[in-house]
Amino acid sequence: MPGSINRRGVRWLRGQLPELVAAGAISSENAAAIERHYGPVEARSNFGFVILATVGTALVGAGIVLLIAHNWDDFTRPARTVIAFIPLLVALGLIGFVLTQRNESRPWREAIAIFDFAAVATSISLISQTYQIQGSFADFMRVWLLLCLPVFYLLRASVGAGIYLLGTIVWLFSREFGLFIRTPNPMFFWFLFLLAFPYLLFRFFEKSSSRETSALAIIMTIALVFGMGFTAEFAKSDLGGIAFAGLLTLIYLCGMKFFPRTGERLHTVALLGGIGIGVTAIVLSFESSWHVSREFLWGHRTAGGNISLALEFLFPIAAICLAGFGFFRRNFQFSVAASVFPVVTAIIWGVANSCELAKAESSYRTDCSFAAAALMNAYALWLGIDILTRGIRSNSIARANFGLVLIAALAISRFFDSELSFVTRGLGFILVGAGFLVANVTLFKKRGSAASA
What we know:
Order of helices and strands: HHHHHHHHHHHHHHHHH
Helix content: over 70%
Number of helices: 17
Number of strands: 0
Mean pLDDT: 79
Low-confidence stretches: none
């Protein structure tokens, strides 16, 4: 079944067909044609049962750990070593059982994957405590993630893959930040992320419309945003705005292309990308966002710094290529204003860097910082208007209101950031509020006339 079809609506329609045939509203031939149009009946997802089985397994594992911890001091070191490996051996035995006897049962695979994750963490912790192995929490997370990586591939466990990706975010935050040391190198995050990316492709090609694939894509999106944040902070190249513009635009375009939906609702991946584009545009509309330090030369960097800089270029280039492919094919459904965000940001970055640094200033403001902020304000206004008009055209109240919220956020930002008079600010808020009312009244009237027709 295509991903753009509302599966819940199709199930409801199938349930109504016998009553419609019995009432004479449609013929049995029409009912059969409707059945053929939507294809064979799909089995209902057991995703809820998978979650319950996973939680139950985690609770059982936690209880076993607490029982062992209660008498831990009474055991000798060899006994502790044996106990430390028992959960891992049990997990390996259960993996063998699932692969041979319950390989088609998704709740079994997911539950055992989570149990194995917990067993690996328990074994590492107990061995480290028994033999006083020194190390930080970041070291523990790195070893744990690498050992757990084969498990969700072997068991085809999407929940396990999601926990792995969340673990990569935890690793980013767990590293030590010294008082006089710059941001720790986050390159290992991208290595961990790339190791999990083939699993998302496997899930997507197997069944792109499933909830598990969507949930995994959402978690990957969140992990990418955090990874880019730490990478931009580590690179110190003044390209963070362009990098985030490219990443969020790429997320939005991928959500529109690979998770298409009909009607007014967007897939969550596309929605997150669109919201991220709007928020980033508002942040970059402040003049302080265009204070530059000009540390983007390759020659003065370490290998990790150069890789970080390459990653900051990678996502904008990928977003531009994907948008260009859609324009070339002339079959795009995405917002033009949103798709050109990385190009606009790169141009504005060039404007900000085209002037000399302001003299007698402790900051890195240039004489063109204000002009760059003004251009970004104009783009944010265009983006809000474009989303508003697309919402009205598609009869989507949510999109129209999001466009108005973006315009209102821009107005509020300028309220605290400009030298405008109170009269000018008041008129601006009145216009935005009137826009909310007019847009919603127009949409409701449009829906009412469509329903009556």
